[in-house]
Automatic annotation (TrEMBL):
This is 2,5-diamino-6-(ribosylamino)-4(3H)-pyrimidinone 5'-phosphate reductase. Keywords: NADP, Oxidoreductase, Riboflavin biosynthesis. SUPFAM superfamilies: Dihydrofolate reductase-like. It catalyses: 2,5-diamino-6-(1-D-ribitylamino)pyrimidin-4(3H)-one 5'-phosphate + NADP(+) = 2,5-diamino-6-(1-D-ribosylamino)pyrimidin-4(3H)-one 5'-phosphate + NADPH + H(+); 2,5-diamino-6-(1-D-ribitylamino)pyrimidin-4(3H)-one 5'-phosphate + NAD(+) = 2,5-diamino-6-(1-D-ribosylamino)pyrimidin-4(3H)-one 5'-phosphate + NADH + H(+). Pfam families: RibD_C.
């Protein structure tokens, strides 16, 4: 599976403010680029922290891209995936509507009543890992279901875990011209942090978009 991480940060590396509310860092041209990356993907993944904070829909906005996908024999939207160890996704979350297939990755520790509530709303539950979602295991299952190209939109906890598991192939960071600050504000890669064996990136491209900069890296 080819895994592409895409996120927008402030100039000081934050994904959002200390209140963890959704904040627009990208401008119109960058959101249009993100829509293209979604349209080119088989699935788009976020963590449940992002679902609880942003209630994202994760669908393709541009009708031409949806038509293009359908003329290639694909669904109009990529599948949506939420990493949700304890099945905390609200049943009325936008990610669970019937616009696209939604996979909910849970761990063995997820309460059975929450799992069945998510299944009743139409979510396809994939169990991988004891107390936390095991991405290597879950991704093998997604691959078996035809997901070869996965876009990851965040947040910081999930992005860190994917680097830790050495599952990231490409990283695109849009750096907006704003400072958010806050020691508790989420950053691009949170988790426990690395103290050695840091992931190494190969800078492939630098592009000015809107009033910010898009940095595109291959993971070495
Ligand atoms: N600017 C941007 O591009 C984006 C910003 N955000 C912001 O990021 C914040 C949310 O990020 P986070 O709080 O870091 O949450 P997150 O979206 O990374 O979700 C973390 C949760 O995922 C679950 N999870 C399951 N398996 C896991 C694993 N193996 N490793 C790590 N987590 C796992 C856990 O329940 C964990 O609490 C919000 O403020 C949101 O607005 C989110 C996405 C993109
Ligand atoms: N690329 C990008 N730029 C920003 O400024 C952002 N705030 C985000 N956030 C991500 O976009 C998701 C919203 O998706 P929908 O529009 O609801 O489909 C949000 O959940 C973050 O993953 N991204």
């Amino acid at each position: 599976m080819h895994v592409v991480v895409n996120a927008a940060t402030s100039a000081d590396g934050k994904l959002s403010t200390r209140r963890r509310e959704q904040i627009k860092i990208s401008g119109a041209d960058d959101f249009a680029r993100v829509d293209r990356v979604r349209a080119d993907s088989d699935a788009v993944l976020v963590g449940v922290g992002t679902v609880l904070a942003d209630d994202p829909h994760l669908t393709v906005d541009d009708a031409d891209y949806r038509d293009e996908r359908q003329s290639d024999g694909r669904e109009p939207h990529p599948a949506r995936v939420v990493a949700d160890s304890r099945a905390r996704t609200p049943t009325d979350a936008r990610i669970l509507d019937d616009a696209a297939t939604t996979y909910v990755l849970v761990s063995e520790s997820a309460p059975a009543d929450r799992v069945s509530a998510l299944e009743k709303t139409g979510g396809t539950v994939v169990t991988a890992g004891d107390t936390r979602v095991s991405f290597p295991e879950a991704f093998a299952e997604l691959e078996a279901r035809g997901i070869d190209r996965l876009m990851v939109e965040g947040g910081g906890e999930v992005i860190f875990s994917l680097f830790e598991d050495e599952l990231v192939d490409e990283l695109s960071v849009y750096v907006g011209s704003v400072v958010l600050g806050g020691r508790d504000a989420p950053t691009l890669a949170d988790g426990d942090g690395f103290v050695e064996s840091f992931p190494t990136l190969d800078l492939r491209d630098v592009e000015r978009i809107d009033d910010g900069v898009l940095l595109t890296y291959d993971v070495v």
